[in-house]
From TrEMBL:
<keyword id="KW-1133">Transmembrane helix</keyword>
<comment type="similarity">
    <text>Belongs to the peptidase M48 family.</text>
</comment>
<feature type="transmembrane region" description="Helical">
    <location>
        <begin position="169"/>
        <end position="189"/>
    </location>
</feature>
<dbReference type="Pfam" id="PF01435">
    <property type="entry name" value="Peptidase_M48"/>
</dbReference>
<keyword id="KW-0479">Metal-binding</keyword>
<feature type="domain" description="Peptidase M48">
    <location>
        <begin position="83"/>
        <end position="263"/>
    </location>
</feature>
<dbReference type="InterPro" id="IPR001915">
    <property type="entry name" value="Peptidase_M48"/>
</dbReference>
<dbReference type="GO" id="GO:0016020">
    <property type="term" value="C:membrane"/>
</dbReference>
<protein>
    <recommendedName>
        <fullName>Peptidase M48 domain-containing protein</fullName>
    </recommendedName>
</protein>
<keyword id="KW-0862">Zinc</keyword>
<keyword id="KW-0378">Hydrolase</keyword>
<dbReference type="GO" id="GO:0051603">
    <property type="term" value="P:proteolysis involved in protein catabolic process"/>
</dbReference>
<dbReference type="InterPro" id="IPR051156">
    <property type="entry name" value="Mito/Outer_Membr_Metalloprot"/>
</dbReference>
<feature type="transmembrane region" description="Helical">
    <location>
        <begin position="16"/>
        <end position="35"/>
    </location>
</feature>
<keyword id="KW-0645">Protease</keyword>
<keyword id="KW-0482">Metalloprotease</keyword>
<keyword id="KW-0812">Transmembrane</keyword>
Length: 283
């Protein structure tokens, strides 16, 4: 059998190989250069989305949401909106310089069936009136808004956008290498990458949320009451059927409540100090 012909001189790899090498090295360098620490929690993470892009997306999402619920947004002089504005501004003040540079907006949407709140990048926060099943007092409202404001301050949406882009980049590399990218690969990426990240963000926002409440003089223990009621409501709605933790974007309620109780104990001294400071400024 004759020996195989030698490869042509000067061209040992196909051209796409060099392209692949270039984008892999460039992408990896960009990824590591983007690392930063989260405020409050000091977690190291890549931040692949600029502040300007994040703010633009936040503005656009807020406008789209307000358009979607047009006619169901409570007017600014409504009692609940006034309370929300008061609580929101008080908590945002505790977020330091970063929070003060944002244009905060707080809206209430009349949707009795929606027991939820949401925050968009740049400081846009909405709550739905269905929350009143679980939120009965000002400090309980502060617990919910503290959580949402924490998502904004920790730039979780921007982190999530970067993480989605990174996953798509990884799939693109797989496809270039001729490896299969199908529904199963996408599902695996979601379960092993996106959802654990989302659960981590929820826990982080819970912890920072009670910290902001304590600093603002709201009893941080209110968060535990709110989540216990939410857990009861959720159980009623699902008729006892619960989603396994690894499939969920949010941590399970028992885990969340246990974490909150630990965080409340950590920030209690801040709450006591803040109550005392308020008393002395009054007398
Ligand atoms: Zn959240």
């Amino acid at each position: 059998m004759p020996p195989p012909p030698p490869p042509p001189k000067g061209r040992r790899f196909p051209p796409y190989f060099y392209f692949l090498g270039f984008i892999s090295i460039g992408g990896t360098a960009y990824y590591f250069a983007s690392f930063e620490e989260t405020p409050y929690t000091g977690r190291k993470r890549p931040m692949l989305v600029s502040r300007a892009t994040e703010l633009q997306i936040g503005e656009a999402s807020n406008k789209a949401l307000l358009r979607q619920f047009q006619g169901r947004i409570l007017p600014p002089d409504h009692r609940t909106v006034r309370l929300l504005q008061k609580v929101g501004k008080k908590l945002a003040q505790e977020g330091g310089a970063d929070a003060q540079n944002l244009h905060w907006e707080f809206h209430v949407i009349a949707e009795e069936d929606v027991m939820n709140a949401a925050a968009m990048p740049g400081g846009k926060v909405v709550i739905f009136t269905g929350l009143k099943k679980c939120v009965h007092t000002e400090e309980e409202l502060a617990a919910v808004i503290g959580h949402e404001i924490s998502h904004v301050l920790l730039r979780h949406s921007a982190e999530q956008m970067g993480s989605t882009a990174l996953m798509n980049y990884f799939f693109f590399l797989l496809a270039l290498l001729g490896l299969p990218v199908n529904e199963l690969t996408l599902l695996l990426g979601d379960l092993t990458w996106q959802r654990p990240n989302s659960r981590l963000h929820e826990k982080e926002a819970d912890a920072v949320g009670v910290l902001l409440c304590a600093k603002a003089g709201y009893n941080p223990a209110a968060a535990v009451r709110v989540f216990e009621r939410m857990a009861d409501e959720e159980l009623k709605r699902s008729k006892g059927v619960t989603v396994p933790g690894f499939l969920s974007t949010h941590p399970a309620f028992p885990e969340r409540i246990a974490l909150l109780k630990r965080e409340v104990e950590k920030v209690r001294p801040l709450y006591e100090a803040s109550k005392e400071a308020a008393f002395f400024s009054f007398t």
